[in-house]
């Protein structure tokens, strides 16, 4: 597949979660032009049905194509699980999702092959993670756990404290009991809860998220084009109002100023 | 305003919450034909901006008008707070929201005039409740509290237990400290958390929700037409998939079978 515009990279998510992926990209691949779309008018995706998620993902992808991006990152596990194969088939630019990179990293880090996956209802129900792990290594054991309260906790700014710890215990206790040695954070919001998750699972359990592995994939995809050629820029777009997005996005990006542009919803 | 089709009553909500209002209507006014629309493809509304909520409310209302309803109930506090005046101006049928009925009931029950209001971020930020209470009685004191985790708790089926009690304590403690004697559940999801809220506030605090008061308003609006003339029916419509809606809706309606029809999203 030819790379038509390799310095322009598009990312989309239902809201803020994909910013953890953007953060990884900005570290690994500065000097590029990023286009980030947060579809916050229809947030969250993880509680919705597959064909609704596919429709939303398609619309987000087409908006980013209209910005002439040369690479598309589906920076949302729910959209990757439901729609990556659709986008790969329909689009003429490379499309990178979250699942493959996260699975690769989990398999590299797990010693026992006993792996846990956390995700939204939609991601866990899709079984995309379970299938990808078993396809890569049939000797592994996979336990998946839906965590429907994690996204609302993050989006309401609640990242630590007693309630977070109780919810983490509720969802992680079954995985701890099964003795997993690696846990995939199968939702781009979940890295914000890393502190509590790591504390509950203990220091010997590897907690894996996709952002670094995605950045590696994009760097190797770009090859010679992975050298900074511009000062770099980030353009933020949202489908709902900008005020709250800018405020929370800045927290995701360690204080960096964010000035999103509102686009008409699809 | 003429009542063109008084036996057909439309209700909409972003998802399941409005079913608490429907339940009240079915008790107070059986033998009518109800049309319930849950806009679950874009759920929730309470985290969205005002103009996005107005757009969604308008689209839901127009769908219900296409079903030839004679009365429209905005069975969602967030949509009532943001869009009731818009719908009242634009539509040619009577429109009833949640705020007025809930405020009326709270003022009737409060002895001290020290009233608390719970709602979504959007409802609390709109200040619609605060203004309506003070407009009705300038001597009252109103404390409003946004409860962004309540809707996710209800939608994930978590209605009681330690986590619910901790979240209830987090949001209700400031109201308890201020000595409110009445609390308005300013979101149609919140009645599902009544047990925990009442337990935390104690038996002397009145907990008010809008559904009975709405039913009273509709009965008095219909006047002579409030007599059952048919066997009655309920037609459910959703914008996302039906399976999970039917399952959870049945729990909201005390086991009654629900068979929703999916409509194209707007």
Write up this protein.
The structure is a homodimer of 266-residue chains. The first copy, chain A, is α/β, with parallel strands linked by helices and 266 residues long. Chain A folds into 2 domains: 141 residues, 3-Layer(aba) Sandwich (Rossmann fold), CATH 3.40.50.1860; 111 residues, Rossmann fold, CATH 3.40.50. Chain A is built from 11 helices and 10 strands. In chain A, the strands form 2 sheets. Chain A has a 6-stranded parallel β-sheet, sandwiched between helices. A 4-stranded parallel β-sheet of chain A has the order 6-5-7-8, sandwiched between helices. In chain A, helix 2 crosses helix 3 and helix 8 packs across helix 9. The first copy, chain A, is globular, with a radius of gyration of 17 Å. The interface between A and B is medium-sized, with 30 and 30 residues.
Compose a concise summary of this entry.
Two copies of one chain form a homodimer. With 266 residues, chain A is α/β, with parallel strands linked by helices.
Salient structural properties:
homodimer; 266 residues; alpha/beta; Rossmann fold; 2 domains; 6-stranded parallel sheet; 11 helices; 45% helix
Oligomer: homodimer
What portion of the residues of chain A fall into strands of 2 or more residues? 15-25%
Task: Outline the low-pLDDT stretches of chain A.
Answer: none
CATH topology of the largest domain in chain A: Rossmann fold
Structural class of chain A: alpha/beta
| Strand line-up across the major sheet of chain A | 4-3-1-2-9-10
Q: How far is the first residue's CA from the last residue's CA of chain A?
A: 28 Å
Average pLDDT of chain A: 94
